Amino acid sequence: MKLNILVIEDDALLNQLLVGQLQRSGYSVVGAARWAEAKEIIDEQEPELLLLDGRLPDADGLELLPQIAQQQPVIILTAYASVQNAVRAMKLGAAEYLVKPVNLEELELVVKRALDNAALRRENQFLKSRMANAPAWADAMIGSSPALSEVNHLIDAVAPSDMTVLIQGESGVGKELVANAIHSRSHRSGRTFVPVDICTLPKHLFESELFGYERGAFTGAEKLKKGLIEGAEGGTLFLDEIGEIDPAVQAKLLRVLETGRFRRVGGTKDHDANVRIVAATNRDLATMCKEGTFRSDLFYRLSGFLISVPPLRERRGDIPALVGHFIRNHDFSRRIEKQLSPDAMGQMLSYDWPGNIREMKNVVERALILSGDAELIEPRHLAIAPVAEVYAPPLGLAELPVDLSAEPSLEDIKRSYLKILLERYRGHRGRVARILGISERNTYRLIRKFGYGEGNE
After folding, report:
1. What's domain 312-385's architecture?
2. What is the pLDDT of residues 41-60, one digit of tens each?
3. What's the CATH fold of domain 158-308?
């Protein structure tokens, strides 16, 4: 895909020379002689780079810099070479500085450097975000069980293509890890992997976060903002908990999958979506389609290639390797080499792990702390609830920790009921949501509302 460049230069001959040279170098280039003309081209075509004359008939290029350099890199062209001017231009946001008459060989080098640096900055921003939000355990697919081997086989089969993939599995099984593996084994591995947890984004913001928005699209939209689709340019966009998106956004996402095009909120122009979409859910989307809460055409598009990630209870053979991994890679003191006693390992192997790998990580890290200076982790160090406690019978009204004689408010009852469910099911958000009969998104909001922490997925 050719990168778009806009040359803004009032000298017609120099403008034509620059445009022609850059076109021969493989870029898509447009020229403008006035700022008024250039502004229209910027709004319409959104070029990746501007070559801007420092003095235009209708504007001062240096005065424009702070505003336009926020959107794309700018190379200043000037006939007035001085160290003072160069320093001022760089301070105001210029990516590079060229003196007229422009050396054409130098032009190509400077343009390439400015574009490469801008791409690196975008990549660095997303990589920092990804590292800050990635689960500490999500750095390898641990285990050699037949169930995990089958998942790896499916990843190897689909990764080289650009096919959309739907990953299904219970909360905590490592669906993001599978998505990351698809990305890292694909031809897009050199570009960004952008994970999006839909449950953590407010519904009214999700569309603008995904597609971006134009200036003035709504109150507070003071400047153009590119969305996550553009942030993942050339890479992979991972949409976790896809079953939580609103019907209106479902329709727009379907259009992206069918046409490879999207439109920003408040915009009228279509943009290319050069991104691979991988989605994940712990919900039964087929049933949701029958109930009318999820678009069947979107489901068919997403499930063109389906990967089901097995729960931990169906791959118990991987538990010793996972435990060893968490012991070796915990992010606190490593003074003592620890391991599980045979009895403790037996308890880990017999437990059903309703919270899957995420729950196991928490149990292992807690045991590392409780075992102190001991080299062996014993059963007493493991915070594993008995099976009867995890799959307990339904609560009775008398069990609610509120004083019903004092006529508690509905909010009091909600708060108390949510607390006891979170304690009973060890923060397993998916299980609590199913018991309450609401979505995980709403469960997450209640957890935050009543100050019980974020819970476990």
Report:
1. Orthogonal Bundle (1.10)
2. 887 778 889 999 988 899 88
3. Rossmann fold (3.40.50)
